[in-house]
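Box 3.1 — From sequence to structure: Methionine ABC transporter ATP-binding protein
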Amino acid sequence: MITLEHVSKTFTTKSGYVHAVRDVSLQIDEGEIYGIIGFSGAGKSTLVRCINLLERPEAGNVTVDGRELLKLDASQLRESRKKIGMIFQHFNLMRLRTVAQNVAFPLKKSGLSKEEIARKVKELLELVDLSEKANVYPSQLSGGQKQRVAIARALANDPKVLLCDEATSALDPQTTHSILKLIKDINQKLNLTVVLITHEMGVVKEICDRVAVMEDGRIVEEGSIVDIFTHPQAKMTKSFIASTSTTDRIYDLIEEGHTLTELGEDEVIVSLKYDASNATQALISEISRTYDVDCNIIFGNIEVVKDTPIGTLIVVLKGDPEKRKAAFDCIKRHGVETEVIKR
Ligand SMILES: Nc1ncnc2c1ncn2[C@@H]1O[C@H](COP(=O)(O)OP(=O)(O)OP(=O)(O)O)[C@@H](O)[C@H]1O
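Predicted structure (token representation):
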């Protein structure tokens, strides 16, 4: 649905050139929810704005729904843009217009009659669960309700793509969850392709099918959300994942010499990473029984990523070295990733 080929965008500022996006190529399939994550300044907003040419890249190709946008004239581009809705962190609603008028705004030149527009607005407000607020003004709404209005407005022209630029960054966690759920619902109901940029791994984890990690204008890693969580490669990705997990705290405790991490002669601290296919519960009792190795869990974290539980356990294994090795081999045979953290 969306193909970016070698897209670059540079800004000229008083202090010189800023290479906001550097040679980015991406393929986003129809109906998927694609996340782009990175710290502030990584180039996410610029990249997503290149998808609807709010920013015009100086190099590369942008193809959306089979049309090469950089080759279109102004009126063709206006038509193509109608099929690309966008929502923003600060909602960008018109404060002097009611909710219904905000949602109706993109339909002004659609050729629809007044009655058809009113029917469409009604349907859209039902979709975002805000029917009872049709005649109020944005200032009378909560942040989450404002974003619902913005979503309804973005959907007015029946777009095929919805671009979400930090759409939940101004919202509290509970409201974030309800907006993400709404985005997921409309993605499924309307087979909408969603591109979502964020600096929060929690957001990506909750709804994205695939994710690209961006740093300094480049994509440093890309893949399915479960792969990225289970086998992150880039340093940046690892640090994003660490931000949503508590198990990395073990390294601080080891450094601080916490009593929890003090080891006897026949003990080691090991991390065990697993997903639903190799859940560890039975495994831990099996290695204790079969290999006579004690397994003491000192930390645990289970993430649910796209409905797949992914867990990390930090355990102290106690037993003589030969038996520990046999237990280790057994754990690995079950597909659980192991790493000795302290010996
Ligand atoms: N219109 C502009 N003029 C000059 N520089 C710009 C412009 N827009 C973005 N930049 C610069 O491009 C780089 C990437 O910015 P961008 O907003 O795309 O990053 P981001 O990852 O979305 O960060 P944030 O979440 O803080 O917006 C930054 O160094 C930014 O200062």
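Summary of the box: Residues 11, 13, 18, 20, 38, 40-46 surround adenosine-5'-triphosphate (CB under 6 Å).
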